[in-house]
Amino acid sequence: MKIIASDYDGTLNHGGIDDKKRNAIKEWREKGNKFGIVSGRVVDDLLKIYKKDELDLDFLLACNGAVILTTDGKILKEDRIDGDILKPFLDFLFSLGADWATIQSDRSYIIDENDNDRLPDEFTRKTLPNLKYFIQVSTILEDDEEAEKVTNAVREKFGDKLNPLQNGRCIDIVSSRINKAKGLYDYLELVGGKYEDMITVGDNINDTHMIKEFRSYAMANGVQSIKDIADYVTEGITELIEKEIN
Fold first, then answer.
1. Residue 192's CB: how many other CB atoms inside 10 A?
2. 164 to each of 40, 61, 79, 217, how far by Cα in Å?
3. pLDDT tens across 200-246, in order?
4. Mean pLDDT of the chain
5. Most CB atoms within 10 A, among 20, 167, 174, 235?
6. Phi and psi for 189 in degrees, rounded to 5?
7. Which residues on adjacent β-strands are paired with residue 242?
8. At residue 151, does pLDDT exceed 90?
9. Rg of the chain's alpha carbons, rounded to an integer?
10. Exposed (0-12), middle (13-18) or buried (19+): which is 66, by Cβ within 10 Å?
11. Among 106, 113, 177, which Cα is nearest to 139's?
């Protein structure tokens, strides 16, 4: 048995999800292998993607591996962060130039400081309820350079508790013990899988840990730093599966 763990944006969903890609995943699974997504997206987003794309999958890892769940939404494991640091951290994050954020906790909470744009179900930092825990905070900066500056600032001030993961303009902040590789090790432990079973594929900086840790593919459209450390470069998921099967 082999297991393919694929990033979603820019990787599995590179140029859309077509029947050729679906059929390749189906053939892979029919041969006794597993296929799943490991993404920075929050739980609700990932479940919606799974249903919308009509994919045949075995597992989902949301929040950069901090949440492991089945395709029907059952949470198998989640890595929580004490809620006591959430508001001080948000104040720091917003002081660095963020003006909105998504928080994964018992559900997703969106913070939007702009009175004109805020929707009825969104919060400000003042109206956000006190959360006992959170799993991930995500935000988007003006450009990649600003995102890199904020990532470094968060790591310097909160690095003992939080791990900021940059993906272009986006930053996902998770527990200091979490990255996509750690999440996949947790998954292997849950299902009784072996290290040598795992194959990873990604395209951006937040995929670095899993690309470096396991046998791996980088997307040809991906950032150079990922292609430099991957074992192989592929044009897409279909091509990867064809290579592994043959």
1. 7
2. 11, 17, 15, 23
3. 999 999 999 999 999 999 999 999 999 999 999 999 999 999 999 98
4. 96
5. 174
6. -65, -40
7. none
8. yes
9. 18
10. buried
11. 113
Q: Residue 96: name the closest of 136, 147, 145 by CA.
A: 147
Q: What tokens does 111 get? A: 């913070």
CA–CA dist 79, 65 (Å, integer) = 9
User: Could you give the count of Cα atoms lying within 13 Å of 4 in the half-sphere of its Cβ?
Assistant: 31
User: Residue 78: exposed, middle, or buried by beta-carbon count in 10 A (0-12, 13-18, 19+)?
Assistant: buried
Decide if 103 contacts 93 (C-beta within 8 A).
no
Cβ count within 10 A of residue 42: 23
Looking up tokens 């990255």, which residue turns up? 179
- CB-based burial label for 183 (10 Å; 0-12, 13-18, 19+): buried
pLDDT, position 115:
76
Q: What is the pLDDT of residues 12-57, one digit of tens each?
A: 999 899 999 999 999 999 999 999 999 999 999 999 999 999 998 9
Identity at 190, one-letter amino acid code: L
Q: Tell me, what's the pLDDT at 117?
A: 82
181: Cβ contacts below 8 Å, ≥ 6 apart: 65, 209, 210, 212, 213, 214
